[in-house]
User: Which sequence fits this backbone?
């Protein structure tokens, strides 16, 4: 993992928990598998705890790790390091994506509430009028109660968002090919196709993985189906949205956008999205930041503890899951 990340992931409590069930070979993380130190550590390791910027676990690396049985990822996606060779070896791989989903869902809820209350336009008008331009009656339709929210993806994040949004007494519809109508009913949402979701939602929030088939899934035609004044929120992956199409759809003020991720990231300095009053851009901060990172470390420690007790992992990832996860 990235050197220094271990200090955010693990405090005294987490190190003590690891010490209780395992021999920690080195508390300083490897940044590469290409040096003499990594040879020594890989040769003895039964468990690898990895995180952001972990290099790929190639066949050559795995040959130097004959005892390796568990890779506990203290981050979300496993795609950067999980290779065919890793799956072929039968190594158990776990992810802290469920832990990382918590702040993303919280951030998304905040974005939904701010968007529904037109907080950003109110801020700008209040600032421009120096306190004289905004009164409660200026936005008669403003508010989060009874709004229609459409979620694209019933992912880990999407399901947490469902719970949050339902407490607003909002109507929630979901588009997800892997969600059955029966399961949607259990979640308290309505399963719909994408076209209907776009046309009937006041706020559309994206929670789908970045896959070849989801790239630019929200393009010119999809944006045209959204109602005038609706919001598009993206806290998932920038590649889900056709940026050029979004520029055109927001430039005339027809729809609004809240983007925590973009494609490319960051946007070029001359992108019109930077300056549009109906577009909010944040620098990919929905996921775990600062003290939220400790939650990921705790999840990885829990997986190591379960492995030591010969218990099944809580959040395993398999090769078959790669087509459904970010």
Assistant:
């Amino acid at each position: 993992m990235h050197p220094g990340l271990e200090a955010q992931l693990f405090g005294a409590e987490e190190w003590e928990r690891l010490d209780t069930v395992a021999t920690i070979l080195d508390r300083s993380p490897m940044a590469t598998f290409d040096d003499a130190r990594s040879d020594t550590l890989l040769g003895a390791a039964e468990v690898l705890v990895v995180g952001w910027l972990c290099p790929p676990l190639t066949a050559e690396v795995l040959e130097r790790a004959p005892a390796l049985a568990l890779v506990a990822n203290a981050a979300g996606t496993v795609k950067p390091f999980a290779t065919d060779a890793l799956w072929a070896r039968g190594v158990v791989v776990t992810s802290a994506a469920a832990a990382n989903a918590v702040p993303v869902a919280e951030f998304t809820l905040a974005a939904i509430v701010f968007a529904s209350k037109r907080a950003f336009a109110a801020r700008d008008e209040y600032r421009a009028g120096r306190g004289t331009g905004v009164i409660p009656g200026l936005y008669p339709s403003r508010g989060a109660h009874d709004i229609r929210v459409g979620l694209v993806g019933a992912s880990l994040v999407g399901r947490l968002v469902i719970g949050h949004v339902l407490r607003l007494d909002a109507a929630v519809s979901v588009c997800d090919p892997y969600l059955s109508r029966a399961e949607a009913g259990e979640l308290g949402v309505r399963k719909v196709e994408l076209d209907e979701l776009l046309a009937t939602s006041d706020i559309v929030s994206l929670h789908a993985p970045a896959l070849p088939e989801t790239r630019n899934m929200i393009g010119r035609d999809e944006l045209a189906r959204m109602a005038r004044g609706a919001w598009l929120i993206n806290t998932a992956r920038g590649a889900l949205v056709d940026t050029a199409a979004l520029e055109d759809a927001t430039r005339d003020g027809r729809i609004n956008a809240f983007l925590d991720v973009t494609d490319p990231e960051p946007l070029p300095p001359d992108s019109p999205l930077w300056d549009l009053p109906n577009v909010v851009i944040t620098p990919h901060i929905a996921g775990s930041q600062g003290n939220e990172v400790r939650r990921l470390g705790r999840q990885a420690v829990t997986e190591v503890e379960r492995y030591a007790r010969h218990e099944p992992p809580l959040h395993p990832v398999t090769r078959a899951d790669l087509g459904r996860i970010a």
The longest helix spans residues 97-116. The two ends are 19 Å apart (CA to CA).
